Amino acid sequence: MVVFTYSNVNEASKAEIVIIGVPDEKKSHSKRKGTSKGPDVLRMVNNESNFFERGGSVIPICPMRGNIVEKYIFDYGNVKKEELYRIVFQLVSNKKVPIVIGGDHSITSIILKAIGDSIGKVGLLYFDAHPDFVSSTTDYYGSVLTDSSKWIDFNESLLIGTRSAELEELENAQNSGIEIITPLDINEKGIGKIMDKVRAKYHRSKKYISIDLDCLDPAYAPGVSVPSAGGLSSIDLISLVKLAASLGIIGLDIVELSPDFDVNNTTAILTSRILLESIASIDVNRY
Predict the structure, then answer these.
(1) Domain ranges of the chain
(2) What does the alpha-carbon distance between residue 140 and residue 177 come to, in Å, rounded to a whole number?
(3) With CB atoms 3.0 to 4.6 Å apart as the test, which of 9, 129, 180, 264 could cross-link to 228 if both were Cys?
């Protein structure tokens, strides 16, 4: 298996940030399959696009802000979905920051349960074209917020990039108290105002970031399982994630990379940049 070149320690106990791959899409209902290939393709593309080889040395590119070379990072490798709860619970309990790469979005339900059982409810920054708040059907990638409601502080959470919601999802979101930010809101108010909204959610509960790559417009990210037009730009997403990571997060996931539907690795290259910028902005001392 290819290992993320970012990995610079040889075991999780020595790391501050632990990257975990979950090549599983059993809870996906999408007609476009292949997100189980996401973790390995992302590792390969990341190592090709974020590092140069010259004179026998491997040279990392620098993030736009923050740093990566001073952080202790471990690539745990790929794990079975059934192992994820135990691993995340152990990492969070030991104040490590897990970054989980999917796979389909249902893995987030497991992560939030593990975090909730370890430290209690968290605020959630959920980047997705879909609210994933279906309640008429549960235990799949479209019911993450329903399945995880016990461990989410909805008043301290945001849905960002939402534009393909079912009516019941909008009703569930309204009843829960979670705030929705659509791409139209970002376009009309400007990214600065949305960043202020993110900052405003940091006065109480700890935060977890979940990124479904379909939050992005398909022009930036064609290789996802359920693309939806009218989405976020790549730099708006990166700006918001970097801000949230710098303010303090418990963990992060990036899901729904579907390599078979990508174009010239466009989505994977962008995802590798999102990963780089996220790690660079994580303040491990704010945990």
Answers:
(1) 12-286
(2) 22
(3) 129
Q: Say which residues have a Cβ less than 8 Å from residue 139's Cβ, sequence separation at least 6.
A: 27, 106, 147
Q: What's the pTM?
A: 0.97
At residue 73, φ and ψ (nearest 5 deg) are: -125, 140
**What are the tokens at 115?**
């975090």
Largest CA distance in the chain: 59
Quote the pLDDT of residue 215.
98
Looking at residue 261, its pLDDT comes to 98
pLDDT tens by residue, 151-206: 999 999 999 999 999 999 999 999 999 999 999 999 999 999 999 999 999 977 78
pLDDT digits (tens, 9 = 90+) for 25-62: 999 999 999 999 999 999 999 999 999 999 999 999 99
Q: How far apart are CA 123 and CA 251, in angstroms?
A: 11
DSSP 8-state code for residue 154: G
Question: Residue 287's pLDDT band (boundaries 50, 70, 90)?
Answer: low
Residue 24 burial (C-beta neighbours within 10 Å; 0-12, 13-18, 19+): buried
What's 36's DSSP letter? G
Phi, psi for residue 209 in degrees, rounded to 5: -105, 130
Stretch (H or E) spanning 237: helix 234-247
* CA distances to 125, 158, 236, 247 from 241, in Å: 9, 12, 9, 10
Peptide linkage before 77 cis (omega within 30 of 0): no
**Which residues, at least 6 apart from 249, have a Cβ–Cβ distance to it below 8 Å?**
97, 206, 207, 208, 209, 282
- Coil, helix or strand at residue 73: strand
Average pLDDT, the chain: 96
